[in-house]
Amino acid sequence: MSEIVLNIDGKEVAASAGMTVLQAAQQADIHIPTLCHHEKLEAYGGCRLCIVEVEARGRKSYVVSCLYPVEPGIVVRTRSEKVDKIRKVLVEELMAHAPDAPELVRLAEEYGADRHRFDKETSFCVLCGLCVRYCDEVKHKNAVGFIENGAVREISFIPEIAAKECWSCQECFTLCPTSYAQAAYLLTEALAFPGRREAHSHAHAHATPEPERRVIPITPVAATA
Amino acid sequence: MCEQKIDAIIEKYRGQPGSLIHALVEIQHENHWLPREVLQRLADALEVSFSQVMQIASFYKTFSLTPKGRHEVHVCSGMTCHLRGAAKLLARVEEITGLKAGETDADSRFTLETGACLGSCSIAPELIVDGKHYGRMTPDQAEAVLKSYE
Ligand code: SF4
Ligand code: FES
Ligand code: FES
Description:
Structural class of chain A: alpha+beta
Strand order of the largest sheet of chain A: 2-1-5-3-4
Bound molecules: iron/sulfur cluster, FE2/S2 (inorganic) cluster
Order of helices and strands of chain A: EEHEEEHHHEEHHHH
CATH topology of the largest domain in chain A: Ubiquitin-like (UB roll)
Largest sheet of chain B: 4 strands, mixed
Distance between the termini of chain A: 50 Å
Number of domains of chain A: 3
Radius of gyration of chain B: 17 Å
Shape of chain B: elongated
Shape of chain A: globular
Number of helices of chain A: 8
Largest interface: A-B, 14 and 10 residues
Strand content of chain A: 15-25%
Order of helices and strands of chain B: HHHHEHHEEEH
Oligomer: heterodimer
CATH superfamily of the largest domain in chain B: Glutaredoxin
CATH class of the largest domain in chain B: Alpha Beta
Largest sheet of chain A: 5 strands, mixed
CATH class of the largest domain in chain A: Alpha Beta
């Protein structure tokens, strides 16, 4: 594959054609914050936190690095006054939904974001789509999907599929930046197929024991509100 | 519910995931709403996951996931209709049908919807029943129109 040389934060970085600016930066150990990116998944461009400044042919523009392909000779700045300001506002907006998400709390500190700037609308989900896309692209189960649109868009576990598939997987829980995926699953379980946990603890009484349930440790989130 | 017609639609698109929206539009048109078990059968036939069907079906306002009445009543809430008395018209329609926007009555006779500018400002304020436009509606005329639908 052809080599492309670009400049990221003053460093000459080699990348191959078809890579994104984010991939090129990560390969060169340059950190760009991301929320909706996952190396196993298709680029999504949902959170916009990975925004960077790109200077090409004398023109500056602001692009999301997880989608933007590398080009020869472009100059990328991962931090600048304007980039930082954009990230700050994005974090503030996300915090209206998930004020205590650890990653957001950390980013807020770094970018000086005010978690109270926007009225709280604590949906806990930031619609990064990691759970939905992981279940689709990696597990091919589609147990969780987006429903509705616009301001009322949310993720939802499909009880019929979740009852069969989620018990022994639950891998999306650790991907979720806010623990909402787990909360939504547990709510679905409680509403649609309750009693399974109890049945599970008496599994030895059954002829065919249930598959082992995965238990994923959750880091407790300090309430700072 | 017209089971056979729905089955025919599902069969027509079997194995064609790309036709999901077409199938949904046709079922919606035929049945006026999309029951969950129909969506499940559609998902299986088109080889699309059920969650993706739900995603599409809940995304567009055209589709209804709750039962609709035999007659769909729209009262325009757009600017022109508003200026020409849509609020009074709506109030009367609500009174006659006993419904608020988005609701369906227990006999499944009417479903009431509002929506901004239905594209006929020149005959504002307007009432649409099952796609038929009634222009320059007064509350009293609306009552007569609705009576003609059983
Ligand atoms: S539940 Fe979590 S992983 Fe899923 S979309 Fe919301 S924030 Fe992202
Ligand atoms: S990581 Fe690029 S938009 Fe979310
Ligand atoms: S405002 Fe009612 S048709 Fe345009």
